[in-house]
């Protein structure tokens, strides 16, 4: 099997799949497994990288994403330009709110205001966010663990949310020789 690591965009072949240092023929959801890969060093992989099948919807770095958020605890207002840390899966990346698209009632889910100037604690909103460093996230509807997040600011959780849409970057990365050979076979 050939895997891709995003947002690094590294592609290589899996040597073995293991659980407690014993090889497995396959892994199923819910199992905690390790896998060994060819021709990559541990220094090339970073916290927050996502591994996926290179031939079936491989993970990619995102340019931006649309998120549905509930503002929990923020002393002021949140406006376009706000750049908190987003905790999504194992990634902790600062993201910029570039546009507030909608403000909604958290109880009913009904829209209150399109393109609001700001949102505050207790509000729900739809916003466009742009990661300030390479990040890999997915739509919550497709990959729930990669599509839910919390917003950290002032040493507390400011908001929680889910990702509705992603705009992925198309980049060329490192492909190891073993990955090229495995792809040919």
From TrEMBL:
SUPFAM superfamilies assigned to the protein according to its UniProt record, in alphabetical order: EF-Tu/eEF-1alpha/eIF2-gamma C-terminal domain (SSF50465), Translation proteins (SSF50447)
Tagged with keyword NADP: no
Protein known as: Elongation factor 1-alpha
InterPro entries: GTP-eEF1A_C, Transl_B-barrel_sf, Transl_elong_EF1A/Init_IF2_C
Lineage top rank: taxon: Eukaryota
Domain GTP-eEF1A C-terminal: start-end pairs: 64-164
Pfam families in the record: GTP-eEF1A_C (PF22594)
Family: Belongs to the TRAFAC class translation factor GTPase superfamily. Classic translation factor GTPase family. EF-Tu/EF-1A subfamily.
A single GO molecular function term of this UniProt record: GTP binding
Organism: Mizuhopecten yessoensis
Keywords of this entry: Elongation factor, GTP-binding, Nucleotide-binding, Protein biosynthesis
